[in-house]
Design goal:
Elements (H helix, E strand, L loop, with lengths): L1 H16 L3 E5 L11 H9 L4 E8 L5 E3 L20 H4 L13 H8 L4 E6 L5 H14 L7 E5 L2 H10 L4 E6 L8 H5 L4 E5 L5 H9 L3 E5 L4 H10 L3 E4 L7
Parallel strand pairs: 1-2, 1-9, 2-4, 4-5, 5-6, 6-7, 7-8, 8-9
Antiparallel strand pairs: 2-3
Helix pairs in contact: 1-9, 2-4, 5-6
């Protein structure tokens, strides 16, 4: 038993001393209201190199940061995000006195300190996100390397790549797809982001042979992270970034 504990601790030290990306899922949403400035600030304070967030275009055209298409789960509002204007959304309570932020507000908070992984959630988000990134690179001294854009909609990823080829992209899976990482290549993406239970050694090896990095979601314990890195993945999304310091 003692030898097993020493082995686990040794692997843990190796895991978190090697280049292994710990990504704050919706900020540090295990501690703070998800996708809020408070949550992103907490994740940054915990030392993450990347945060992940979700973007919709609301009815008045602004890019807002919220995970669900509807408001009920994460705010005191009712209805579909895409049906409401920014004036209707900006005063809603998203928890602990926080509000739904604009994507631009998150960028201003981060201020180039870490990478922002923007997940395209709503319809037709590709062009507004590409335009905002171009604006921040041109006018606010950001780098395209400060961004990653991803989506479960693989067509949206490919469309975004055509609009903003300077930014790395990722395709998100919930399953172990036929064709392995061929799907990632067809979307012209750089990353495969998969639900951890669906990851296989074959998928990981195939992706790496094509120069594609693998991230797993949502990983909230060290033992699971260790197991996944032993399979060869490159990083994890987590609600508790401080567990991996």
């Amino acid at each position: 038993m003692k030898n097993l504990l020493i082995l686990v601790l040794s692997i843990s030290v190796q895991l978190f001393s090697q280049p292994f990306l710990v990504i704050g899922h919706r900020g540090a949403c295990g501690y703070e209201p998800e996708n809020t400035l408070r949550s992103f600030r907490r994740a940054i304070d915990m030392g993450v190199k990347m945060i992940e967030l979700d973007a919709f275009v609301c009815a008045s055209g602004e890019l807002v940061v919220i995970h669900d298409p509807t408001l009920e789960r994460t705010t005191n509002g009712i209805g579909y995000v895409e049906d409401l204007t920014w004036d209707s959304l900006k005063h809603l309570d998203a928890g602990k006195g926080e509000h739904i932020p604009l994507l631009s507000q998150v960028l201003d908070l981060v201020d180039k300190r870490i990478i922002i992984n923007i997940e395209l959630k709503g319809a037709h988000t590709e062009k507004p996100v590409a335009n905002l990134i171009h604006e921040y690179v041109k006018n606010k001294a950001w780098s395209y390397e400060n961004f990653v854009v991803s989506s479960f909609d693989h067509y949206a990823v490919r469309e975004f790549h055509e609009l903003c080829p300077q930014v790395k992209t990722g395709v998100i899976f919930e399953c172990n797809p036929i064709g392995y990482a061929d799907i990632v290549e067809k979307a012209q993406a750089n990353y495969a982001i998969n639900f951890y239970e669906s990851l296989t050694k074959e998928f990981i090896d195939d992706a790496h042979s094509r120069g594609i990095r693998i991230f797993a979601y949502t990983v909230n314990t060290k033992p699971l992270a260790i197991k996944l890195q032993q399979l060869g993945i490159d990083g994890i999304f987590t609600n508790y970034p401080d567990l991996f310091n």
